[in-house]
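Preliminary data (for renewal application), zinc ion complex.
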Amino acid sequence: MFSKIFLIATCTALYVSVAVARERAVEFPDAKDGSVVLAADLHTHSVFSDGEVWPSIRVKEAHLDGLEVLAVTEHLEHQPHKADIPHPDRNRSYEIAEGVRADSEFDLMIINGAEVTRDMPYGHINAIFLNDANALLTEEPKQAMEAARAQGAFVFLNHPNWLPHVSDGIARLSDYHKDLIAEGLLQGIEVVNGTLDGHSEHALQIALDNNLTVMGTSDIHGLVDWTHDAGTGGHRPMTLVLASDRSEAAFKRALFEGRTVAWSYDDLLGREEHVKAVVDACLTLEAEPALRDYTVISAKIVNACPVNFTLLNQGEETFQNTGDVLNVKRDGETAVAVRTKTGKGQMVLTVDVLNAQIGFRKALTTRLVTVIPTQ
Ligand SMILES: [Zn+2]
Ligand SMILES: [Zn+2]
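Predicted structure:
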């Protein structure tokens, strides 16, 4: 009797955990040019720097969240737990995480990285795809960047709008950062950082003006569930990377080429072509045949992504059933009765995507197109 009850309890627990994982894991359809959209969090901490969890939790959270890439980026110079967890080797956190991933056979890429943590004007800078993080423990911060380049690392500026570093919350590049960019030692900038709980339209414009890759990261220190309501409709901030395939080489190439979109809450931020590629993969327009000789056509906007969209109609066509603001729920659909000219042929809706930013306070405009079927 005991074993039967135990078995039922175990099965129930397994069933619940799988169901939660399905609801929680993010998934984006491929872009229309065939690029895959890889969900990545490239800035995370564990107890090996100032985080609150063992690296195994980072790996399991990433798996539950449906991430395809996780970077382990402990502070190199800031180790508040070292009296309890002495670890002179700065690669140790990555090694544990990668071991957990290998044992669990998760379909997840783990990347070794580090957060070079200096006072302003240098600030905090992440280097990922490292072979040996210890080599970045240098006297001068620029030597750390050179050591990163010697390992083929991708380097990005962290939280440039962090209030302890910039009291007005406005991201700016210091002369030091400009020098790193000029020398090819800095390739990206965070426009979204979860620890700040916010994003920076100034950093987005800096990225566009300086040809830097747009990054969104969690910079998670505690639990993703508690910080970002993961599993109950929330998600950690992350970078969506438009890669040619799911290999590490293609992922790394896409980062260096700047083929990214930062995602925070329902905001998508990046270069127009990349944000448009993600949005156009998410949203499709479907129309029904005309009824009688009516020229008002029933249609729906279908959303295949875990992002809630807010659209503002900018076209000539107006709607019989709603005003110009359309909300399309994540993985949902919104019905529109479109007043067309003829009730036949192509239907085009021109919309501003208010939650998709392609520059300083500038929303993406896109077109949803379909052909009205004949009876
Ligand atoms: Zn930092
Ligand atoms: Zn950090």
